[in-house]
């Protein structure tokens, strides 16, 4: 029964084609090139003068332009933030000094430790002193404006995209919970049957190459699939009550194994600060405390690696799965308000918020539902109606890559930042935090920091989507990865070349 549905889903799964959009131009590069053009134009008028007047005029013009340029540069640099100036300097320094990867001194093979801090919104690193995270940033490579999650910006879809390089439509985990349209089976965050988990996660790729992997929690890591058996001592069954310190100690203990037995790929997962973010929103002292605690865990890890003499050899990739935005009781949309246009019964809804996913019975015209819902939402008569737009999934913006799976319900609603959908009005008033929105929304961004022999020190790179991380890890480990949605050349754009 189950295997039939897997076959159907697998066979209808289009081959993932590397199809990354070009990175947006770096604004600092644009400024630099403007400067360059400006200065070159001031030096071009060195042609043979025809008259003395013309020469003097040109000289005066040149002087004026230079003076203006100097004044502009002074104003620009004095008004620019300290971090921008530091960034530009660091980037230039790293680019000037480092071009090739640093050799390993103690380990025999490259080792990648992939760490996730759940819901670590980009910018949290500035909420409070985070000396350990900043040590990794200043001696490593950082996505300057954060890591872009995949849509929907939820925990399970994103963690599994990070380790497979696939968009949710291709790796199958299209939501934290959903219903298989063929079998009626329900996926939950506790589902470990391999039929749900498509694609090839990094731990499986690593084991396929005869190497060892270890997972200290990661969505999908407990699933026995292909060559990955979730081996005892190298694969932990999820238990949120395990203290963070114990998780760090276990990972450190792997480095006490004989060199040839040290897993080359390890994961480490922390539930914070997502856990607090949902309850209190992103701007609460509880978040600040949670961020400080994550920083202490990174400090404990660094200290343990230094004690073992392997800190500079180990590649640490520190990421989050998504960001967080504040939500409150006034930013609500009630489906019952659409009744004058169309009744949307509860039984059609697969998830409400922030990802509104609707699967009406097959007898109902999908196009009709979408048209009537949007008519009501845009009528001006539905509270906050203009904050929600409903789509047939095939008509969602292509950049969301959220259509090519039968598991994705046929009608999807996109909400504006911070708004929520509920079935009907209630007296319940709550403020907190949420994620799951369009991944173009800046508050959904998280962090990317790479530290290790193949990452230049102090380098800043433009933001990129987390589906690139799979190729990055296989490239560092020097193994062939499975087909995925990342760009084959991405690792060369961010890593130092081999020595
Ligand atoms: Zn999460």
TrEMBL record:
Regions that span the bilayer: 53-77
Stretch list, region Disordered: 1-47
Source organism (scientific name): Liquidambar formosana (Formosan gum)
Signal peptide: none
Name of the protein this chain belongs to: Uncharacterized protein
Gene Ontology, cellular component aspect: vacuole
A Pfam entry, by short name: Phosphodiest
Record keywords, A-Z: Membrane, Transmembrane, Transmembrane helix
Top-level taxon of origin: Eukaryota
Molecular function terms from GO: hydrolase activity
